[in-house]
Design goal:
Number of domains: 1
Structural class: mainly alpha
CATH superfamily: dinb family like domain
Largest sheet: 2 strands, antiparallel
CATH topology: Four Helix Bundle (Hemerythrin (Met), subunit A)
Order of helices and strands: HEEHHHHEEHHH
Number of strands: 4
Distance between the termini: 21 Å
Shape: globular
Strand order of the largest sheet: 1-2
Helix content: 55-70%
Strand content: 5-15%
Number of helices: 8
CATH class: Mainly Alpha
């Protein structure tokens, strides 16, 4: 998927959303309060991941303005260092609680709402808290989040459900583009070739 291609971006996002719901289907009724990621329970982790679905629908429901962020990487570069960890943790907790008594159904409803919002849509600017961005550039940021947190969920529940190849390719493309833009490209290359293993801060 090349950056700026709306049909490709929608396809990748849709595949990532489907993968999330497949993972959620594997979570047992007793597992939602178990460990997810860091201080998050599994419910909170899934809730946080599902925000990648709700923001798409929410932003499409509002009129766009100008474009300040001219790429997917520019979006991620703009959010580095934004917000404090406690606020991020709380948003995940709140999103998990908002899934309700049937979190599987809650995630399915969020996916359906996002896919419906994308049906027949043309590329256009979206207004985000970090600046205006074209839909075709914003969707890969959501695919990236679905990919990374999909891996988090799979690890938490011990599931062997690999990411769809287009989702993985999109996430890797976003990661390398962001690393290059933020001056971490060489470190990523060294890490990928086994020459360095220090943690990176891409998003």
């Amino acid at each position: 998927m090349s950056e700026g291609s709306l049909p490709g971006a929608i396809d990748d996002f849709t595949a990532g959303a489907r993968h999330l719901t497949q993972l959620v289907d594997l979570i047992g009724d007793e597992g939602w309060d178990g460990p997810g990621l860091g201080e998050w329970s599994l419910r909170s982790l899934v809730g946080h991941a599902s925000r990648s679905l709700t923001t798409v629908a929410d932003y499409l429901a509002e009129p766009g303005s100008g474009v300040e962020l001219d790429s997917t990487a520019a979006y991620f570069a703009s959010i580095q260092g934004y917000g404090d960890p406690a606020s991020v943790r709380q948003r995940g907790v709140d999103a998990g609680l908002a899934l309700g008594d049937d979190p599987r159904a809650g995630v399915l409803e969020r996916r359906a709402r996002a896919i419906e919002a994308l049906a027949g849509v043309d590329d256009r600017p979206l207004s985000t808290p970090f600046g205006g961005i074209m839909l075709s550039d914003y969707l890969p940021t959501r695919t990236f989040e679905l990919a990374v947190h999909g891996l988090d969920i799979a690890r938490a529940i011990g599931a062997d459900l690999p990411l769809p190849a287009p989702v993985l390719a999109s996430a890797l493309s976003t990661a390398t583009a962001t690393a290059t833009l933020t001056g971490q490209g060489e470190r990523v290359l060294l890490t990928l070739t086994g020459r360095e293993s220090a943690p990176l801060s891409l998003v």
